[in-house]
Amino acid sequence: MPHRHCNADRFDISAMSYPDFVGMTGYPNQPPGGDCTINLIVRLSGITDKSYLLDLACSSGFSSIQLYSKVRCSFAGVDISEIAIRQARQKCFKRNRISGSYIVCDACALPFPDSVFSHAVCGASFGFIRNREAALREVTRVLAAEGMLLPTILYYNTRPPKTLINELATYIGYSPNISHDLQYWKDLFLKQYHIEGEVEIVSDPPEREQIQTFIDDFIEKELPDRVKLSCSVPDIRRRLLSTRLLLAEHCRYQSSRLLVLRKIER
Fold it and tell me: Which of 29, 97, 200, 203 is most exposed by smallest CB count within 10 Å?
């Protein structure tokens, strides 16, 4: 069924797009590999407290907030979901003195001057951006000379059943292209970047019990009170559980890899 963006002041779970739903709950929309990938980015990118980071398609801000907590870099996060950005700003506000901002915008039209960022991260988000070549041109434009782009990519190593792809399209509003293998992604980035390194992210998809435990713990400890008052918590749990189970099943047909890319100066 088609999803639509909703009014941020009233939460209709069934009407929400997937990005709005994740943003509204504040559920940690992590890159593949989660904290391990964040640690790899710190180790391989040379990011420091002097860096200025772009978090592309940031959702509720997991990557940028985690990177800030490790190296105290300045950052700007962007996402097309107003609700997700609102949640990211609230998380940022709770951590005093964070040197970061979150902006609602399209990845294909970034509201920044040329050559302003030293680093850019994107946790598998290029796979969900339909006009990804335009988005890549924009990221490249706002990266400084020899700036670094660190995308975490998902690619297929086994063909998933069509029923699974159809379910995925229903639940998250996006139907992935199963022909996009590792070489497809490298070819995309090599038009504007050198590959300085790559690391395969090895992690088994979580089992149902692990997903249930994580969701229950999240709802008890992190789900905002205003959301609990505005929505049916059992409905939130059901949608989180059904979506995360579906994504975990989908991951069984995929591999993930962190690419360390350096901007080519022309």
Answer: 97
Neighbours of 71 (CB within 10 A): 17
| Residue of 82, 80, 69, 68 lying closest to 105 (CA atoms) | 80
Q: Classify residue 112 as exposed, middle or buried by CB count within 10 Å of its CB (0-12, 13-18, 19+).
A: middle
| Cα separations in angstroms, 105 against 5, 29, 118, 173, 209 | 14, 18, 20, 19, 36
Average pLDDT across the chain, whole number: 90
- Residues 83, 246: Cα–Cα separation, whole Å: 23
Task: Please tell me the distance from the alpha carbon of residue 207 to that of residue 170, in angstroms, as a whole number.
Answer: 22
Q: What is the pLDDT of residues 154-186, one digit of tens each?
A: 999 899 999 999 998 888 888 888 899 999 999
**193 CB-near residues (< 8 Å, 6+ apart):** 140, 149, 261, 262, 263, 264
| Phi and psi at residue 60, to the nearest 5° | -90, 20
Residue 67 lies in a domain: yes
Residue 182 corresponds to which tokens in the numbers above? 């590792």
User: Nearest to residue 196, comparing CAs of 234, 148, 235, 133?
Assistant: 148
- Structure tokens belonging to residue 141: 């434009």
pTM of the model: 0.89
Q: Which residue has the tokens 């995925």?
A: 168
| Structure tokens that stand for 173 in this block | 């509003």
108: containing domain: 19-153+177-205+255-263
Label the pairing between strands 193-201 and 100-104. unpaired
β-strand 254-263 against 143-156: which pairing, if any? Answer: antiparallel
**112: CATH:** 3.40.50.150
Angle, CA of 196, 152 and 222, to the nearest 5°? 140
